Amino acid sequence: MGLGFTVGVIGVLILGHAAYSTIQYRSLLKITEEEFSGPPMEVVLELLVGLLFCMWAALTVPGKFLSVHPHSDENRVVSLPENVDFMIFNHRGRAFSSEVGLKLKH
């Protein structure tokens, strides 16, 4: 558990505290019968700091970014599975494609 994970946990705790502070502020406004126009500036600042901590942790915890080689066989999206025997193309979806084609021709 490195520094990035710790910063992420602190960021989540700060966001949770900001949410609790906003709920507490709204309940105070209900008691005093005032309208809620937005959270206090301290809560907005807390939200921004918590957001920055969480974003920094999300970028540092997973590890370094690796380059993607475009001509590698591992990066090919179009590849057939090993068990081609289970691929069935004769199913009821075939009936819908012909009806749609007929409707478009008229």
Biggest sheet features: none
Count of separate DSSP helical elements: 3
Structural class assignment: mainly alpha
Task: Quote the distance from N terminus to C terminus.
Answer: 65 Å
Series of H and E elements: HHH
* Radius of gyration, CA atoms, in whole angstroms: 27 Å
Estimated share of beta-strand residues: under 5%
Helix content: 55-70%
Unreliable stretches (pLDDT < 50, length at least 5) are none
The shape, in one word, is: elongated
Number-wise, the strands total 0
Membrane topology: Multi-pass membrane protein
Protein name: Membrane magnesium transporter
Pfam family, one: MMgT
Main location: endoplasmic reticulum
Describe the fold and architecture.
The protein has 106 residues and is mostly helical. The protein has helices spanning 3-32, 41-60, 93-105. The longest helix is centred in the first third of the chain and has 30 residues, at 3-32.
